[in-house]
Amino acid sequence: GQQLNQSPQSMFIQEGEDVSMNCTSSSIFNTWLWYKQDPGEGPVLLIALYKAGELTSNGRLTAQFGITRKDSFLNISASIPSDVGIYFCAGLTNYGGATNKLIFGTGTLLAVQP
Amino acid sequence: DGGITQSPKYLFRKEGQNVTLSCEQNLNHDAMYWYRQDPGQGLRLIYYSQIVNDFQKGDIAEGYSVSREKKESFPLTVTSAQKNPTAFYLCASQTGFRQPQHFGDGTRLSIL
Fold first, then answer.
1. Cβ separation of A100 and B97 shorter than 8 Å?
2. CB-CB contact of A71 with A8 (8 Å)
3. What is the pLDDT of residue B98?
4. Which of A26, A34, A75, A79 has a 20 to 30 Å separation from B24 between CA atoms?
C-alpha cells in the first residue's frame, strides 16, 4: 500500500532543543494529521490540518499544511523528556464514496536526552 | 469516559487457530477501522466499516474477517489463513468525513 515519505527516520537530541520533521507525498491530500505513539500504545492525535497553507499550534507543537497539499511539517520547540516517542504523519484521502483512508508515514523516532 | 476500548491487550495464537480481537467505542462514531502495525512500519489498513452491517476490505484483508452488527462494536478475527499474524493491531473510529481518526490502545498478537 501507499506510504508517505517521512523524515528523518530518527532523531537523538538534547533536552531544550527544537525539533523539525516532515512528510512528503506524490499525491494530494485534503487533510494532514500528526500523531504521537508511545511504546505499546495507540497513536494519539496531536494536530489536524484542513487547508493548504494552514499553520496550527498545540502548545509547543506547530504544524503546517503545505501549499501544494503534498507535504506537511511538524516542529517541536524546547523539547522535554516526555516528548520521546514515535511521530507519524498521516494524509487523509477519499477511498470510495464517503469513506476516508489514512495513509501513514513510516514514523520518526524521537529520543530526548535529559 | 468516552473512548475506544480494545481487548485483550495481549493475545497468543496457536497454529491453526482463529482468534478474535475486540474493539468497542462509545463515541457514537459511524466509521470504524482496523489497522496492522509491524515494527518500523506505518499502519496498514485491514478492514473498515462506514455503517452497521456494512464493511469493506482494506489493503491487507487476506486472512482476516470482521463483522459490524452493532454501531459500537467492530471485532476482528485473525484466521488460520493469516500466515504471519504476529503484529500490533489497532482499531480506530471517525466521527465524520475528513475528520481525524482516533485510536484504541491496541492488541499485541503473538504466535505460540
1. yes
2. no
3. 80
4. A34
